[in-house]
Design goal:
The complex is a heterodimer. Helix content of chain A is 38%, strand content 21%. By secondary structure, chain A is of the alpha/beta class. Chain A folds into two domains: 2-159, 3-Layer(aba) Sandwich (Rossmann fold); 162-236, Winged helix-like DNA-binding domain superfamily/Winged helix DNA-binding domain (Arc Repressor Mutant, subunit A, Orthogonal Bundle). In chain A, the strands form two sheets. Chain A has a six-stranded mixed beta sheet, sandwiched between helices. A two-stranded antiparallel sheet of chain A has the order 7-8. Helix content of chain B is 44%, strand content 21%. Chain B contains eight helices and nine strands. Chain B has a six-stranded mixed beta sheet with strand order 3-2-1-4-5-6, with helices on both faces. In chain B, strands 7-9-8 form a three-stranded antiparallel beta sheet. In chain B, helix 1 links the parallel strand 1 (3-9) and strand 2 (27-32). Classes of the chains: A alpha/beta, B alpha/beta. The A-B interface holds A 91, 93-94, 119-120, 123-125, 127-128, 131-132, 135, 140, 143, 145-147, 152-161, 164-165, 209-212, 230-233, 235-236 and B 64-67, 91, 96-97, 99-100, 103-104, 107, 112, 115, 117, 121-129, 131, 133-134, 178-181, 196, 198-199, 202.
């Protein structure tokens, strides 16, 4: 059974959790996705130098909860603080990506300087969501081979998509993301952002070509079109 | 210009049929393991394509080997892009490793990635924005300059001869080391750079090596 995103149940990660317990300045936090097999995560726990905490995401499935218990026990024996985050919908890629990105921002905001991410476990969508966030945030990413349990490090390559947009394009996208519920057309956008209508048309065409904005007909008016940000584009503008 | 849909595939053809229903395409490329190609799901897909006058192009990979999946998908994307086709990648089918590797490949190559099950979901990204573009000209030149273990001073000198400043060349080397693309070690007091062995596969994908 799949749950709606609104039923996402998570143990909130508050900033104090990321305050170093040993008084050291450099804290390494390992993030991970967990499925039914603890072995997808344990190699990274063992191999991460100076690991203080682990934050891992798992589904509400009984087998995932059983794996969670094993990870908690594994961490407890080693004196590593562990925070499990149970996802209500382990199949909603964008919601999972948003959750992970928020948690990473909290960790960074609390001064965590070193973050690693193991994306081997969990549903395919959990793993893909984690990979997506790692690409957007420039986080060292690790994979664990299913059979050998060997860790594969992915290169650290941060894609800063916001930098690929002009300041005006970023402003338009940010406005569309912030006003997602509101139907907006080009004229309304131009007025709201103080940009000339023809300039706005140019920027919208560029954003459509880049795949972050779509222009859709309004059913009640054959001549009118609404401009909206594609789902997930808020992940790109950060 | 043909519209090419590159799709990951395991055993369940419905994951691919879902994408075919939502995403317009002229040619279908399946990235799959050898076992998947012997299953009835593959035959059904192939027969459906033949009935529509098309043919399925197959890219064989080891679906449990990230590197194999990544290289296979990258090669398929590059081949079709060179032929000036419009490429999209669907990551709904196959193993998790295959889906993740195909996702990385699509970001790496700057082509849109989709996940299609009940509804199509386009994963966030900018068309045409490739990993390659995230390298500065000096970083790219430094990577090209490293053929086996190379003295950092020699790399800087080479980059200077190409018109890069010393500071820019040094920054490029530091940045590449931080991104785990280069490894720098001290050998008898001399800094020597080489390609980080853990990233060599990825650089092959970037076509830098």
């Amino acid at each position: 059974m799949r749950f709606r995103a609104s039923r996402l149940r998570r143990i909130d990660i508050v900033s104090p959790l990321f305050v170093p317990s040993t008084g050291r300045n450099s804290v390494t936090v390992l993030f991970g996705t967990l499925g039914w097999r603890p072995q997808s995560l344990t190699p990274s726990i063992k191999s991460t130098e100076g690991l203080e905490r682990i934050v891992f995401y798992h589904s509400a499935h009984d087998k995932s909860r059983a794996a969670r218990a094993k990870i908690l026990e594994f961490c407890d024996l080693r004196g590593i603080q562990a925070t499990p985050v149970e996802l209500g919908d382990a199949f909603n890629l964008l919601d999972i990506a948003r959750t992970i990105r928020e948690d990473i921002a909290k960790a960074r905001g609390a001064g965590v300087s070193s973050i690693r991410f193991n994306i081997a476990g969990g549903t395919r969508l959990m793993s893909s969501a984690a990979l997506l966030v790692c690409i957007l945030e420039g986080i060292p990413t690790t994979y664990v081979h299913d059979e050998t349990h060997e860790e594969i490090q992915l290169p650290l390559l941060k894609m800063n998509y916001a930098e690929r947009l002009s300041p005006k394009q970023r402003a338009i996208l940010a406005y569309l993301v912030a006003h997602r519920e509101k139907e907006t057309n080009e004229t309304g956008l131009a007025r709201a952002l103080g940009i000339h209508k023809s300039t706005m048309n140019h920027h919208i065409r560029q954003l459509v070509a880049k795949g972050v904005v779509e222009v859709v007909p309004i059913p009640r008016d054959a001549r009118a079109h609404s401009v909206r940000a594609v789902p997930g584009s808020e992940l790109l503008v950060g | 210009m043909a519209r090419v849909l590159i799709s990951t595939f395991g055993f369940d053809e419905s994951k691919v049929f879902g994408a075919l229903r939502w995403l317009p395409y002229d040619r279908l490329v399946l990235v799959a393991g050898p076992e998947s190609l012997r299953k009835p799901g593959f035959r059904r897909l192939r027969d459906a394509e033949r009935a529509a006058g098309g043919e399925v192009e197959v890219v064989r990979v080891d679906p449990f080997d990230f590197l194999s999946c990544f290289e296979g998908t990258c090669a398929a994307i590059e081949r079709h892009r060179k032929a000036e086709n419009e490429v999209r990648v669907n990551i709904s089918g196959g193993t998790k490793v295959l889906a993740d590797a195909a996702l990385l490949a699509s970001y790496h190559e700057g082509v849109p990635a989709w996940h299609c099950e009940a509804e199509p979901l386009r994963l966030p990204g900018l068309h045409g924005a490739r990993f390659m573009d995230s390298l500065s000209p000096a970083e790219y030149a430094a990577l090209k300059a490293v053929q086996g273990p190379t003295r950092v001073a020699d790399i800087v000198e080479l980059l200077r001869a190409q018109g890069h400043g010393s500071a820019s060349a040094n920054r490029a080397i530091v940045s590449l080391r931080e991104r785990r693309l280069l490894k720098v070690v001290l050998q008898r007091g001399t800094a020597v750079a080489s390609i980080d062995p853990q990233s060599a596969w990825f650089l092959r994908g970037l076509r830098v090596r």
